Amino acid sequence: MNILAFGPNGSGKGTQGAIIKDKYGLAHIESGAIFREHIKGGTELGKKAKEYIERGDLVPDDITIPMVLETLGKYKDQGWLLDGFPRSLAQAEALDKALQESGMKLDYVIEIVLPREVAKERIMGRRLCANDNNHPNHIAFEAIKPVEKDGKLVCRVCGGELSTRADDQDEEAINKRHDIYYDDKTGTMAAVNYFKNKGDVKVISVDGSKNIKEVSESILKELP
Ligand code: AMP
Known about the structure:
alpha/beta, five-stranded parallel β-sheet, two-stranded antiparallel sheet, 9 helices, 46% helix, globular, binds adenosine monophosphate, ATP binding, kinase
């Protein structure tokens, strides 16, 4: 099964993606995480992508599209859940074309709907676990608050060290990312609408303002 996950930064898309990929044994492919790995590893691609990511701009398509398509091909037999791509109408069209050419089929599109102001508030409070990016930790939500250990906040799931993402604490970068997401002319919402209008893939739209369990239940009940 191949799935696309859409939702603004801060909508809980990564958390829901982790739940779904575990249930169906899918590869979880996150374009942003692939970039961060490259940056950490000091690769050429990472060096090129870094400046865009720090500003909250999109990394150019000639870097991003081949990187993502190559990764999808690796998991052709396993099936994948793709998160963070496509982020624009042009990327949606490129993905659609590449899937047809490679004989891969898109089975579901998941859209987590969340108002822009709510998404922003959520981003600023989230904390990243050093052991697993998908361990949910957020200083403003009681259910997923980090825990205190030796006077320090640590991951509520595994006790791992917590950090913030630089682009999560930068309001200008957040606003830029949301400008791109909510743009229904050429941005990410245009990509969502592209798949909605195509009509040959089931689009599951859920209300992202609910808690993690409620959101995952409303997604899972639409999946086989
Ligand atoms: P994310 O972890 O999805 O928030 O992605 C972090 C950053 O990586 C984004 O702000 C972009 O700079 C870059 N990025 C991730 N996915 C894409 C994409 N599909 N196209 C261009 N840039 C991307």
